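Subgroup meeting minutes
Present: P.N., E.W., G.H.
Scribe: E.W.

1. P.N. recapped why we're keeping a running log of single-chain structure predictions: easier to compare across weeks, and new members can see raw inputs and outputs side by side.
2. G.H. added today's entry (344 aa).
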Amino acid sequence: MKANFYELTFEELTNLMLEYGLERFRSKQIFHWIYNKKATSFSEITTLKKEIRYFFDKEIGLNLPQLIKKDKQEDGTEKLLLLLNDKQTIESVIIPAGRKTTLCVSSQIGCALGCTFCATGKMGFIRNLTTDEIIGQILIALFMIEHSRRLTNIVFMGMGEPLNNLDNIVKAIKIIKNEYGLNFSGKRITISTAGIVPKIYELSHKNLNVKLAISLNAANNKKRTQIMPINKKYPIKELISAVRAFQKTTKWRITFEYVLLDGFNNNYKDAKELISLLGGISCKVNLIPYNSISWSKFTAPSMNKVQEFANWLYPYLPAVTIRQTRGDKIAGACGQLATKYNYD
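Output recorded in log:
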């Protein structure tokens, strides 16, 4: 079976060049043509000798997921349904907002964490995505928006828990950041986690210089455990300790995501607990009005209540934002991504 080019980091490709007896600089040429000029076959790379192009077309595949469905909302948000080689499906979301365009990338098929406000958790865990399947989401999005907008941000906030697929996420980020590849700055890449504490420590030693977001959603263990079972294993005190350790390795603020569930985590006491918990951490709090799921008991608070909660936090936590809901009419908003296990 052919290797897939999109699973190779620049260093791995360079080693492959040397293994094949080719010059090291060929790696730069190939990365540039594939990731910048959007070549879809090695035969398009005219700076390579004909025999090298033929050899690579024979030995290495350029295989992307297949786009099988696209849903677009009036606000410009696009949800993409992608078919993988094993007939599983995943979703990713293109979110335009002003001059920025963000791609929400999936890291797993399903999720094992079972957060009660999230549709992906209802699917259960199927498998991790491979590096090429992660990169494939980005390239397909780039092909789609190439002539209209520029992709400015990549967030690992789609289906799955990114830190439970850390090895493939790290490889993908190395490709995304490589100067001959997609050449994204670390400040434009965010990894979101429900709080896999050992993996946060591990991530802090990877020297990726990317941003970290914590899906917090409650500031005391009783409430957080009710909606996020992972809190039983890694309670809030341990999570905050890991966050503080991570922050020592980066210049970026930590983002704490807080999904507002009406009548559950949005009263004045909840706000005071959040202020107390996050004191002394250089952070931003991103308030997310709950996006409805048909089977869930939760509802979103009114925008007046959302604003009231934000006002309680400010100025004690001076960086407080309210996320504008995007993609909710196409089940593409935060917490709504889910697919069939298998595409028929």
